[in-house]
Amino acid sequence: MKRTTVKIPEALDARLRHEAARRGVTISEVSRAALEAYLDAPAGRRRLGAAGAGRSGREDISERIEEILAAEVGR
Fold this sequence. Notes:
It is built from 3 helices and no strands. The protein is an all-alpha fold. It has a domain at 1-43: Orthogonal Bundle (Arc Repressor Mutant). This is CopG family transcriptional regulator. InterPro entries: Arc_rbn_hlx_hlx, CopG, Ribbon_hlx_hlx.
C-alpha cells in the first residue's frame, strides 16, 4: 500500500478522527473509504449528491400545498 500525506484544516482533522473513533477503525480506513466513494461517484453527482433527494414523483405538490399542510398539522 502506498503512503500519502495530505494537509487538511484542523476542523476537518477533528471530524475525521471523531468518525474513525465512532466506527472503531483507523483514520486511514475512513480516509480510504471517503476517497473511494468520492472517486467512484459519477462526475456529475459529486457536487450535488443530494439534489432531488426529496423528489416525490408527483407534479401537483405546489397546487395542493395548503391541503397537504393542513393534513400534516392535523395529525
